[in-house]
Amino acid sequence: MNLLKIEQRAMTGSDYFAELYVAGVLARRGWNVYFPHRDEGFDFIVSKLIDGKMLIRPVQVKGKYPESTKVDKVVYGYVGKLSQIHEEMVLAIPYFPILIKNSRPACIAYLPFSLMKRHKRGYRCEPAGFQNQTPTPRPKYTKFFDDSGLELLESNDFKSLRVGTT
Predict the structure, then answer these.
(1) Which residues is 111 bridged to in the sheet?
(2) Structure confidence at residue 37 as a pLDDT band (50, 70, 90)
(3) Given this model, what pLDDT does residue 43 score?
């Protein structure tokens, strides 16, 4: 097995790279990042003082690592179990391009629990699409991605945001 295949399997075998990448983005944005002693739920907790009020958000990261055989999809995201849930939680989905060495996410979604729907496999939240071998935000979910998603994280009503509200 060549080195690239080994790196690809390591990246898809765990979300450590995605977790640390998202934690780094949040830390650069001024959030304090706290990692648990045991991985029994949230990947990490973030806190930030906003307008004199301390915001605390548990974070679960679910990285999407498409392979070269990935076909176009109108909806693309996370479907599965969540180890823990909380009304103030953030589901962060970093969408990577087709696996290339040392790639960074094409985009990152920061989603409130209010956008997750029950599904027979756990929960479903699919805010992106996959077209021409590239993950892209679906139009009605754009505000939850990248810088605008990070801004929404800092709002007091993040937990109750819906697709049509800000």
Answers:
(1) 91
(2) confident
(3) 95
